[in-house]
Amino acid sequence: MPTAAKLIAAILFAVTTMIASELFKPYMPEGTQFGYFTYMNGAIAASVGWKLLGGRAGNGVTSAINNGVTALFALILFLLFSHSFRLMIIESTGIGYGSLSEALQDVAQKMVDHGLLVLNTDVLVAFGLGTVATSILAEAASRRWR
User: Fold this and answer.
1) Which of 7-16, 48-57, 95-104 shows the highest mean pLDDT?
2) Helix crossing, 4-24 with 121-144: angle to 10°?
3) How confident is the model at residue 41 (pLDDT cuts 50, 70, 90)?
4) pLDDT band at 63; cut points 50, 70, 90
5) Is residue 1 helix, strand or coil?
6) Which keywords does the record carry (predicted)?
7) What does the DSSP 8-state code read for residue 2?
8) Which residues neighbour 53 within 8 Å (Cβ) at sequence distance 6 or greater?
9) Predicted TM-score of the model (pTM)
10) Closest CA to 64 of 144, 142, 146, 145
11) Where are the alpha helices (DSSP H) in the chain?
């Protein structure tokens, strides 16, 4: 059921992720084509914010921040997997892989490589501050509009 907390969480988590996505781009190799990278991340973050943050709002500020951190980790893992899987599909149409296990190993390796790029200070600060603010505002919306 739609609630104000879910809407606030979805919108603010998407905005936070889109800002962090823009901060992430300079750390990628030169000449990387991003396409809809930021918008795709925002859409995924909106669904995670709706389900994980907004759905759990209403149990206090401490619980909200804990839920926000949980949602952030889930979001980062989901984004890493979805982008790595997408790159594997693109590369499999061009060069191909010898076997399915080789393709899946490449997905795992790309997740690790891109995960290390997320560990830059400005990206982590943007994600951290945005997640805490989103969690607190979703909690406030849950208390104000029931």
Assistant:
1) 7-16
2) 170
3) very high
4) confident
5) coil
6) Membrane, Transmembrane, Transmembrane helix
7) -
8) 5, 6, 9, 10, 13, 64, 67, 68, 71, 134, 135, 138
9) 0.86
10) 142
11) 4-24, 37-48, 61-94, 100-118, 121-144
